[in-house]
Amino acid sequence: QKEVEQNSGPLSVPEGAIASLNCTYSDRGSQSFFWYRQYSGKSPELIMSIYSNGDKEDGRFTAQLNKASQYVSLLIRDSQPSDSATYLCAVGLGNNRLAFGKGNQVVVIP
Amino acid sequence: DAGVIQSPRHEVTEMGQEVTLRCKLISGHNSLFWYRQTMMRGLELLIYFNNNVPIDDSGMPEDRFSAKMPNASFSTLKIQPSEPRDSAVYFCASSPLGGPINIQYFGAGTRLSVL
Question: What's the confidence (pLDDT) of residue A96?
Fold first, then answer.
């Protein structure tokens, strides 16, 4: 079983709609969870961190964590063309390291 | 504040040549991670250091790969000899031990092409 799974294929959303991304993880002991955004040809950039169950909102982004179900999600409200990127889910493991999912590509259609 | 600095940004070399990638950590950070990213395999952790000490190098693909931290702020990743299948983007990331749990900041990456 992979440490972090992001199974959805590319996601196309109309401008102004909500984009929803999901991620599951295998290590029940994980305590920290992150979403990174990566534009084509660029490096991953941290956009959200979440450490406790529930929702965390930051601007148009909301991260949701459910440790019992080992599930993390990211919602992007009022999607903009500038949100078109690949979104990487990352889960904290021991010794300060992260396990990354393969990413989901989001395309916002004007 | 300067972020993680990687050099070179692009490297084109021929099979069999030695390649050295460089990384300067964010000042005050003491964890350093080397990743490789390809379309097929995504972002893979190669090796990481805490306080200059290699903690886990199980992600290093072969003995052709080696990494060092000669001091607290600088690291190198060396591939000798290089092969076409090593072509990828190599990122380093740094993190503060004892800071917000597990947060990592990435450099701009080195795009390596081995012909």
Answer: 79
